[in-house]
Design brief:
By secondary structure, the chain is an alpha/beta fold. It has nine helices and eight strands. It has an eight-stranded parallel beta barrel with strand order 1-2-3-4-5-6-7-8, surrounded by six helices. Bound molecules: 2-phosphoglycolic acid.
């Protein structure tokens, strides 16, 4: 079994969070990103807009669409929730699950595991976010990240774990002024791959491990190639077509 994600290309995900303010701006930004991506063969690009813009920015293009969350319920009386089926019906292929900003608002590990299961059952690729609050000197962060990964995947059949993407986002590096160093990230990417291999064996070999937290056009290529990750989850810098285009080119051209 193989991951459907192209292993040779780098997976670059735009997490727009609660931006931009209008459908018009969302369409313009998406168009600009699609134009940049269409010229690059070394990157796979996914835009994760707020739910309300998924339908209006989806088009048959190289750029794929994802949601920023889903409900673990199927349908019915769940005011304010959006189901995996609804998201998929608009053309989305991906969904971010367990972002630290949602965990901070009280999303529990058990709910994250249910959402991951629901995404896979619906044919959406879950981008499972994990990451420590503090990179402590005693190394407690290693066990924290391990526990988050295993807990998020616990409801999946072992034969299905290859369907996920792991996004390592150290919380202290999100929305910050500096990303994690590519040296430290390399340690973490090796560690995360070891956690996956120890738990699931060969089936986990192709699981993409990506990084998020203060990535921009100037550090993106170093983070990807020195940090040895399969891609990036980008917040702020994905809100400017120009900056995100430069970031995509930097990774594509390894500069
Ligand atoms: P940032 O956000 O790139 O603005 O640090 C990353 C994220 O939260 O996914």
């Amino acid at each position: 079994m193989k991951n459907t994600i192209n292993q040779k290309k780098k997976l670059i995900i735009a997490n727009w969070k609660m931006n931009p303010d209008s459908e018009k701006s969302a369409k313009e930004l998406a168009l600009s990103i699609k134009k940049s991506a269409s010229r690059l063969s070394g990157v796979d690009v996914v835009i994760c807009p707020p739910y309300v813009f998924i339908g209006s920015i989806f088009s048959k293009s190289k750029v794929k669409i994802g949601a920023q969350d889903i409900s673990f319920e199927d349908k019915g009386s769940h005011t304010g929730e959006v189901s995996a089926t609804q998201v998929a019906s608009l053309g989305a292929n991906f969904v971010i699950i367990g972002h630290s900003e949602r965990r901070k608002k009280g999303e529990a590990e058990g709910d994250i595991a249910k959402k991951v299961l629901k995404a896979v059952a619906t044919g959406l690729t879950p981008i499972v976010c994990v990451g420590e609050d503090v990179h402590d000197e005693e190394g407690k962060y290693l066990e924290i990240v391990r526990a988050q990964i295993l807990s998020a995947l616990i409801l999946l059949k072992k034969t299905e774990v290859w369907k996920v993407v792991i996004a390592y986002e150290p919380v202290w590096a999100i929305g910050a002024t500096r990303a994690m160093s590519s040296y430290d990230l390399h340690q973490m990417s090796l560690y995360i791959r070891k956690v996956l291999a120890d738990e699931y064996g060969k089936i986990a070999v192709g699981i993409p491990v990506i990084y998020g937290g203060s990535v921009d056009a100037t550090n993106a290529a170093e983070i990807v190639y020195q940090g040895e990750v399969d891609g990036l989850l980008v917040g702020r810098e994905s809100l400017s077509g120009e900056n995100f285009g430069a970031l995509l080119r930097a990774v594509n051209n390894k500069i």
